[in-house]
């Protein structure tokens, strides 16, 4: 039972420290929607998503009202669409438009799963879907796309890496009249997980149940406030313990929402993803947590060490609060979605090279970074390869979501609005990696993949 102090504390977290459930995401399998006729397949896709998710938004709103817990986004993720394309053939854009239409009809914020898993090679449907991604993101509004190009067990598909550098650039160019937003809805993964509730990388893995509810919880402001209340001379082990205890409380809230939503919707409860996912709002920044720990500004020496401790403590606290912690749990470091990261970038304290080092110990990787519009596809591909190598060697998920600012001056910015925020253009080294990228083939799996 919650006592009065715990209730008051939770109310304060919500009202003053930006605590929220960032998303409830319904994962839906589309395996039984496959058909050799693409029109019939699209019809099955629409009907199944509508059947399961038609009450998702209403349920989220009811839970938020009942418990006074803000639930910011309601989303859907589906089986990687390339699998359906492999059976039906035809233009994959038909699937993208179907996903966009049903997502709008049920009222969710985003739908993810316009995806392909090509870490070990291209199966039927994969190349067709990947080629269509820029156009799909330009011709839809709330469809999100992801491609997994590597894993610890499989190595890195360098042919796919090359293609994805091109597709990111094309997605930005096709939406240059809308702040290049197409590229902001496209993620390239290494070691992608099957139960991720966060966009743009969410898809419903083939090992998942037919339909599940996954919850993504956030609370950078809560963690920062808890650390701020500690003495400035408190040892770092005490700070880690404070973070663990705070993460425990936040995860319990996510567990409550997930269990309630699954009961109301009559589907299985999947996981709680405890991720310190920031927003552009003041006081809701992972960078500011690192500064509260003791850095003058995020990006300075010591940043990677502080982030490693934060990420580990968040996971330890979350695991103790729920037997169903999963997804990408830890700390996200998107630039455009984090007020502290934006400030550090503008002051020159934070650069892409430092961000890359930080990705070795964070939840995901290079996220929501605006780069110069004249960056070549080969440079983008090499950035993906670097990030995938970190994930492959360290047995962790890494990702790249960069947005080339087409037509903008190098000192300019892109403003996406909402949770996607605002991003100043970050300089990137433009020395040519073309020979490396054009070699193609496969980077072999590392020795630490042989664990059987």
Q: Estimate the global geometry from the Cα principal axes.
A: globular
Q: Radius of gyration, Cα only, in angstroms?
A: 21 Å
Query: Which CATH class of the largest domain applies here?
Result: Alpha Beta
Amino- and carboxy-terminal Cα gap: 44 Å
What is the helix content?
Answer: 40-55%
Count of extended strands = 14
Specify the structural class.
Answer: alpha/beta
Mean pLDDT across residues: 91
Strand content: 15-25%
* pLDDT < 50 runs, ≥5 residues: none
What count of helical segments does DSSP give? 16
Q: How many domains would you count in the coordinates?
A: 2
User: If you consult CATH, what is the topology of the largest domain?
Assistant: Anaerobic Ribonucleotide-triphosphate Reductase Large Chain
- The H/E string reads HEHHEHHEHEEHHEEHHEHHEHHEHEEEHE
| Level-2 CATH architecture of the largest domain | Alpha-Beta Barrel
């Amino acid at each position: 039972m919650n006592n009065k102090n715990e209730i008051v504390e939770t109310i304060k977290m919500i009202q003053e420290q930006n605590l929220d459930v960032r998303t409830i995401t319904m994962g839906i399998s589309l395996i039984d929607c496959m058909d050799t006729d693409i029109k019939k397949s699209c019809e099955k896709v629409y009907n199944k998503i509508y059947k399961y998710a038609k009450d998702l938004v209403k349920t989220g709103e009811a839970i938020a009202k009942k418990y006074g817990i803000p639930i910011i986004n309601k989303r859907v993720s589906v089986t990687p669409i390339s699998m359906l394309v492999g059976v039906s053939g035809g233009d994959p854009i038909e699937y993208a438009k179907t996903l966009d239409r049903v997502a709008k009809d049920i009222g969710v914020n985003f739908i993810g799963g316009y995806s392909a898993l090509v870490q070990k090679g291209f199966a039927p449907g994969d190349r067709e879907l990947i080629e269509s991604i820029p156009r799909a993101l330009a011709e839809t509004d709330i469809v999100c796309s992801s491609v997994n190009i590597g894993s610890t067990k499989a190595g890195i598909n360098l042919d796919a890496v090359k293609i994805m550098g091109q597709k990111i650039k094309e997605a930005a160019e096709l939406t240059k009249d809308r702040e290049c937003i197409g590229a902001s809805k496209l993620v390239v993964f290494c070691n992608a997980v099957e139960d991720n509730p966060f966009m743009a990388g969410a898809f419903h893995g083939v090992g998942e149940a037919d339909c599940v509810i996954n919850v993504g919880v956030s609370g950078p402001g809560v963690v920062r406030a808890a650390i701020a209340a500690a003495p400035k001379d408190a040892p770092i082990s005490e700070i880690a313990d404070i973070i663990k205890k705070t993460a425990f409380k936040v995860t319990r809230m996510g567990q409550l929402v997930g269990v309630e939503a699954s009961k109301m919707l009559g589907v299985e409860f999947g996981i709680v993803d405890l991720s310190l996912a920031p927003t552009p709002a003041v006081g809701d920044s992972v960078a500011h947590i690192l500064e509260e720990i003791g850095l003058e500004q995020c990006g300075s020496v010591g940043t990677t060490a502080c982030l490693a401790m934060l990420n580990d403590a968040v996971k330890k606290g979350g695991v103790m609060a729920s037997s169903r912690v999963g997804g990408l749990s830890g700390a996200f470091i998107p630039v455009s979605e984090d007020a502290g990261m934006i400030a550090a970038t503008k002051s020159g304290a934070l650069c892409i090279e430092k961000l890359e080092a930080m990705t070795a110990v964070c939840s995901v990787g290079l996220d929501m970074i605006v780069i110069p519009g004249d960056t070549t596809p080969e440079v983008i591909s090499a950035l993906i390869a670097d990030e995938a190598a970190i994930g492959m060697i360290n047995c962790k998920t890494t990702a790249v979501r960069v947005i080339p600012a087409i037509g903008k001056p190098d000192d300019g910015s892109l403003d996406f609005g909402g949770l996607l925020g605002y991003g100043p253009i970050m300089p990137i080294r433009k020395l040519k990696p073309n020979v490396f990228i054009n070699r193609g083939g496969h980077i072999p799996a590392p020795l630490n993949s042989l664990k059987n």
